[in-house]
Amino acid sequence: MRLLCLSDIHGHADALAAVLAAAGERTYDAVLVAGDLCFPGPTPRQTWERLRAARAVCVRGLSDLALGTVGDEQLRGPADDGERARLARLRQARQELGPEILRELAALSPGHRRRLPGGQELLLVHGSPADPLEPMTHEMDDTELLELVGSDPAALVLCGGSHVPFDRTLRRPGARAGAGAPGASVVVRVVNLGSVGEAPGTLPDGGRFAHATLLEATAAGGLGVDQFVVPLGAAA
Predict the structure, then answer these.
(1) Is the peptide bond before 40 cis (omega within 30 degrees of 0)?
(2) 87 or 39, which is more confident?
(3) CB-based contact 112:124 (threshold 8 Å)
(4) Position 186 pLDDT exceeds 90
(5) Burial of 45 (0-12, 13-18, 19+ CB in 10 A)
(6) How many CB atoms are located within 10 Å of the residue 183 CB?
(7) Beta-carbon contacts of residue 207 (< 8 Å; ≥ 6 apart)
(8) What is the pTM of this model?
(9) Please, are residues 174 and 186 in contact by the beta-carbon 8 Å criterion?
(10) For residue 15, what are the contacts with CB-CB under 8 A and spacing of at least 6?
């Protein structure tokens, strides 16, 4: 099984199209997206339509929650011009998406689980198992990451939120096997998927890029993670 795993598209349909095209050359069986789908980029509706056409499994990020569930009356007044512009863009994106898509965004689950061919459990979440809206970042040490993983049983956690990809294998103490006998350590792999629409930095030629991850799971329990970038050009 090969899964194309993405996050943080943020309404950049052209970047999403470039990633889907590049990954299609390698082939994949399904698309998983770890939230922040349609805001604040220039093409929220086209982004959603591309995800729906790809039959992507999407979970809810913070911006999806804002689009789908927070009404204008719940938003405090903007404190400065930057906040004023962002709120204006939020209202505009809602209009572009329309009520049907907003309902679909509001109905997105905060997490998605699936059993991989080798028997491992995968969890797709925007932030972390402990808090779907709190991101796990590359700057955190293993102890901090394990706190955000908590007691979740998944062997593989796919997440986003921070826009910076990483792949970290963590070990935590297992459950006690008997009276006073500690169990074996449990391995948890955390893969942050970076960002399709708002990847930080530029390529050496000054062009923009998107992050993508191909996950390959085998019936024998093998798990391959290939994180790569897709050039988008200076205007993307």
Answers:
(1) yes
(2) 39
(3) yes
(4) no
(5) middle
(6) 11
(7) 231, 232, 233, 234, 236
(8) 0.92
(9) yes
(10) 9, 196, 197, 208, 210, 230, 232, 236
Overall average pLDDT of the 113-133 stretch: 96
| Strand-by-strand arrangement of the 223-233 sheet | 57-58, 30-33, 2-6, 208-217, 223-233
* Total residue length of the chain: 236
Structure tokens at 29: 């069986």
What is the rounded average pLDDT of the residues 48-73? 91
Average pLDDT over residues 44-51: 98
Q: How far is CA 39 from CA 48, 57, 137, 159, in A?
A: 10, 18, 21, 18
Percentage of residues in the chain with pLDDT exceeding 90?
81
Q: What is the CATH number of domain 2-233?
A: 3.60.21.10
Beta bridge partners of 174: 183
Are the beta carbons of 106 and 69 closer than 8 angstroms? yes
End-to-end alpha carbon distance in the chain: 31
Tell me the average pLDDT of the chain. Answer: 91
What pLDDT does 172 receive? Answer: 80
Amino acid 188 reads V
Rounded Cα distance between 60 and 206, Å, is 32
How many whole angstroms from its chain centre is CA 171? 23
Residues 76, 43: Cα–Cα separation, whole Å: 26
d(CA 233, CA 203): 9
Output the pLDDT for position 69: 87
43 and 13 Cβ atoms separated by less than 8 Å: yes
Look-up: residue for tokens 């390959």? 216
